[in-house]
Amino acid sequence: MERRSQADRDAITIEIGYAVVSACFAAALAFGAVFGPALAFSLSPSTRRILAVAGGILAAAVFLLRVTHVLLGFARRPENDGD
């Protein structure tokens, strides 16, 4: 098994950073889409709590899916096959 070059390690680091930052942005949008009406309208506290929990669950799922999608796509590129 050959060692990775510095350029390969840098590319992996940048790809992980991109995956995390873009996943945070997507998760924030998902949370805002669910919880936004609670801020715009005067809803009961129990409804606000339900929307916050639902938004948090959706945001976590979106975060994990986005990170997985980006990193698996990076790993499947032909130039990352290790040859």
TrEMBL record:
What are the alphabetically sorted keywords of the record?
Answer: Membrane, Transmembrane, Transmembrane helix
What Pfam families would the database entry show?
DUF6332 (PF19857)
Q: Which domain of life is it from?
A: Bacteria
What residues form the membrane-spanning segments?
A: 12-38, 50-75
**Transmembrane helix: is it a keyword of this entry?**
yes
Protein name, UniProt field: Uncharacterized protein
**UniProt source species:** Streptomyces spororaveus
